[in-house]
Write a structure and sequence with these properties.
The complex is a heterodimer. Chain A is an alpha+beta fold. Chain A has a domain of about 110 residues: Alpha-Beta Plaits (2-Layer Sandwich), CATH 3.30.70. Helix content of chain A is about 15%, strand content about 15%. Chain A is built from three helices and five strands; from the N terminus they run αβαββαββ. Chain A has a three-stranded antiparallel beta sheet, with no helix packed on it. In chain A, strands 1-4 form a two-stranded antiparallel ribbon. Chain A is elongated. Chain A starts with 7 loop residues before the first helix and ends in a 56-residue tail after the last strand. Chain B is built from 15 helices and eight strands. The radius of gyration of chain B is 21 Å and the shape is globular. Chain B is an alpha+beta fold. Chain B is about 50% helix and about 15% strand. Chain B has one domain: Cytochrome-c3 Hydrogenase, chain B (Orthogonal Bundle), CATH 1.10.645. In chain B, strand 2 and strand 3 form a beta hairpin. In chain B, the strands form three sheets. In chain B, strands 1-2-3 form a three-stranded antiparallel beta sheet. A three-stranded antiparallel beta sheet of chain B has the order 6-7-8. The chains are: A alpha+beta, B alpha+beta. At the A-B interface, helix 1 and helix 3 of A face helix 2, helix 5, helix 6 and helix 7 of B.
């Protein structure tokens, strides 16, 4: 096709790329710097509260993978005692339907998202691994009661000009380093 | 003495960077000119329609995320609309607005990726793609804030949405919508008049109006050929009749028109978002009272929406049990990719990549 004058369109595009050169970078150096994830993140581990769980099994019915194994026996009248509560995070698709369905708030999504494992068997989360610890915290997905303590999500929508809303970075001191750490 | 010639067969894919997934094209060539193109699909087949028959109505929603994974929430919406039609469920007002907001955000997100990847195929390597992903990232941030994940949202439910947006969502959305027209203007400046881009796309891969209608194409592919057809206008679902927006159409039906329709559609999406932010009720229920294991009455329903790629339909048959008897998915990408042969025959191999990029397909949706 014919153009009256060549190069104007390309020059306009180049002007924009030149403008882009002076913009602050939006990317972060990932393993060293980390953005803060959403408060409602559906992380790759779940948190289970044994004292609140009644063993009703609603979560096992809600799971579309059939991934949650729950074994109970009858204890006192009208009470179940949970012998086994186990799920395979390698099979889980983290849809959050189990958390949504739990009527007693006994299950929550976790905050962790760097959950690569070295052995396949390590992906199976049993009662001990699902328990609440300092490293293993619940997220606010369907559990708004946990939202207050969590840090604010870093949003790219707010840039440095908006003041106070610049990228929240995860403090380096809290970082785990190296395999097996 | 005549030389004996025979056509040359070229296999493009299944592992080809410009095929947007695992997709194979068997191309019959005469020299460098394309004589025939045959798309070969099925490399990403996961049997989602069959899996849906063994899941309850709520459990199908995470599966629909895996269809068009670039714009997952529109799939959720189409499925939920058909089940709501089947069971006669009324959705609360605020949930309807949230659905519209998220489906328009998804339309923006999809068109960012579509245009960026299309320009990448045209030879504008990486720069436009990265510029568009910068804005797409902001949409993904908003979705992550609401439903906790960045790709497979699982947000819509039968009878509403899963949970209300957090309080920091609306200010962020307002800022996003306010600065969006500036960025769309930047994209126009970046590429619209670029001579190399124009020379490669103007008049290339023309899909005439009649052929587009006969094939059953929808979305920007159909509108690029000059047909004013948008389900949001022609068969309004949800609350789309309350919004004021235009349906951009192309003139010739070449690759440039399809690109240009998408870019103008993004402006209209921003317009809808601006109106939705003003109209949305501040408080209210976001989910109708639907139990997790509910049984719709026996019957069948078909619901379709204007997904970013075109007409996305879900046909759901119920036999009165907790699981659907049959779920059929009518995906826009599968229908649009059948127009590829009509567009590409007669052009050269280098043009085939551009024509294919201009259709904007996602293989999760084609193979299901």
């Amino acid at each position: 096709m014919k153009f009256e004058r060549y190069g104007i369109g390309i020059a306009k595009g180049m002007a924009l790329t030149l403008k882009h050169l002076f913009r602050p970078p939006l990317t972060v150096q990932y393993p060293d710097e980390k953005l803060v994830v959403s408060k409602r993140i559906r992380g790759n581990e779940l948190v289970w509260f044994p004292d609140r769980c009644t063993g009703c099994g609603t979560c096992t019915k809600a799971c579309l993978q059939g991934n949650i194994i729950l074994v109970t026996h009858r204890g006192e009248p009208n009470k179940f005692i949970v012998d086994k509560f186990e799920l395979d995070s390698g099979r889980c698709i983290f849809c959050g339907l189990c958390v949504e369905s739990c009527p007693y708030d006994a299950l929550a999504m976790g905050l962790e998202y760097e959950c690569a494992k070295y052995r396949r068997g390590e992906t199976i989360l049993d009662k001990d691994k699902l328990k609440l610890t300092d490293q293993h915290q619940p997220s606010a997905y369907y559990r708004p009661q946990f939202a207050a303590g969590l840090p604010k999500q870093s949003l790219l929508i707010y840039d440095k000009k908006d003041g106070g809303q610049k990228l929240n970075l995860f403090p380096l001191s809290k970082r785990k380093r190296g395999p097996g750490a | 003495m005549p030389i004996k010639t025979e056509p040359f067969y070229l296999n493009l894919g299944p592992q080809h960077p410009s095929t947007h997934g695992v997709f194979r094209l068997r191309v019959e060539l005469d020299g460098e000119v394309i004589v025939n193109v045959e798309p070969i699909i099925g490399y990403l087949h996961r049997g989602i329609e069959k899996l849906a028959e063994t899941r309850t109505y709520t459990q199908v929603i995470p599966l629909t995320d895996r269809l068009d994974y670039v714009a997952s929430m529109t799939n959720n919406l189409a499925y939920c609309l058909s089940v709501e039609k089947l069971a006669g469920i009324k959705v609360p007002e605020r949930a309807e607005y949230l659905r519209v907001i998220f489906s328009e955000l998804m339309r923006l997100a999809n068109h960012f990726l579509a245009i960026g990847a299309f320009l990448n195929d045209c030879g504008a390597l990486a720069t436009p793609l990265i510029y568009m992903w910068r804005e797409r990232e902001k949409i993904v941030d908003l979705c992550e804030m609401t439903c906790g994940q960045r790709l497979l949202f699982n947000y819509m439910r039968v009878g509403g949405v899963s949970q209300d947006v957090p309080e920091e969502f609306m200010p962020a959305l307002k800022k996003f919508v306010a600065e969006m027209p500036k960025f769309i203007g930047e994209y126009e400046q970046l590429i619209k008049q670029n001579e190399i881009f124009l020379a490669r796309t103007k008049g290339v891969g023309i899909l005439p109006k009649e052929t587009a209608i006969n094939i059953g194409a929808s979305g920007p592919v159909l509108r690029g050929s000059g047909v004013n057809w948008d389900i949001r206008k022609k068969d309004p679902y949800s609350i789309y009749e309350r919004f004021d927006f235009e349906v951009p159409t192309g003139e010739v039906g070449d690759c440039y028109d399809r690109f240009w329709v998408r870019l103008r559609e993004m402006r209209q999406s921003v317009r809808i978002l601006e109106q939705a932010i003003v109209q949305i009720p501040a408080k209210g229920p976001i989910r109708a009272d639907v139990p997790q294991f509910f049984r719709p009455p026996a019957g069948e329903a078909y619901g379709h929406i204007e997904a970013p790629k075109g007409n996305l339909g879900f046909y759901v048959v119920s036999d009165g049990s907790i699981a659907p008897y049959r779920v059929h998915i009518f995906p826009p990408s599968l229908i649009n990719v059948t127009a590829l042969a009509d567009m590409a025959i007669g052009w050269k191999v280098a043009d085939l990549i551009i024509v294919f990029g201009s259709i904007d397909v996602v293989l999760g949706e084609i193979d299901r």
